[in-house]
Amino acid sequence: MDVQSAYTAWAATYDSMENPTRDLDGVATREMLGERRYGEILELGCGTGKNTVYLAEIGERVQALDFTEAMMARAREKVSAANVTFAAADITQAWPCADGAFDLVVTNLVLEHIEDLGHIFAEAARCLKPGGWLFISELHPFRQYGGLQANFEFGEETVTIPAFVHAISDFLDAGREHGFALLRLAEWWHQPDRNKAPLVVSFLFEK
Ligand SMILES: C[S@@+](CC[C@H](N)C(=O)[O-])C[C@H]1O[C@@H](n2cnc3c(N)ncnc32)[C@H](O)[C@@H]1O
């Protein structure tokens, strides 16, 4: 299954099935962004809106993008805030955003499905205001090295979604090459797993 077909199939159970990565990413996002208020927020790959709900609280306005309509349909049901707009877009193409329009670009658990990190950083640099922030939270590559990959049960089948491994240094290099300064890198564990490889990694960059 390709990425879009897989998320179309997963949409109905994405929120309800057990998913420690999804849950830890939600905690990481709230801890990393929690101290401030933001103006214009762009969310890439909003999915079923797990983080969109929170972004609507901390931002003046949120533009949420995703290329899987079935995932965004769930988000539309969940997020009733008037300051959120959803739109279909493939983030591997040019983003439907004006230059310098956003204060914060956020993406969670999406970039493992994107081969070209350089395109994401280039578009983020274009769409952010000077001094704007880029927040990225992903399945930690150490877990990918161990074989973990986004997957779900679909009928009798376990569907594994196509993914790319991006090393920590790939994110840091892409940030530097596109004019970003790293403000914070954080790694996250569920407490019982504190001595294992971290499950989630988050980056906060400033343009
Ligand atoms: C694991 S879900 C994450 C959803 C949400 N950000 C969260 O943290 O729960 C990945 C999402 O990325 C979206 N996605 C993957 N590749 C994409 C692309 N090229 N353009 C837009 N959305 C994409 C999928 O449709 C899916 O909704």
Structure write-up:
The chain is an alpha/beta fold and 207 residues long. It has one domain: Rossmann fold, CATH 3.40.50.150. Helices cover 31% and strands 30% of the residues. It has helices at 3-10, 20-33, 52-58, 69-78, 117-127, 141-145, 168-177; strands at 38-44, 59-66, 84-88, 102-108, 128-139, 151-154, 157-160, 181-188, 200-206. The longest helix has 14 residues, at 20-33. S-adenosylmethionine (SAM) binds next to helix 1 and helix 2.
Question: Topology of this protein?
Answer:
Blueprint lengths: L2 H8 L9 H14 L4 E7 L7 H7 E8 L2 H10 L5 E5 L13 E7 L8 H11 E12 L1 H5 L5 E4 L2 E4 L7 H10 L3 E8 L11 E7 L1
Parallel strand pairs: 1-2, 1-4, 2-3, 4-5
Antiparallel strand pairs: 5-9, 6-7, 8-9
The site of S-adenosylmethionine (SAM) has 22 residues, from helix 1 and helix 2.
Short descriptors:
binds S-adenosylmethionine; seven-stranded mixed sheet; alpha/beta; 207 residues; 7 helices; Rossmann fold; two-stranded antiparallel ribbon
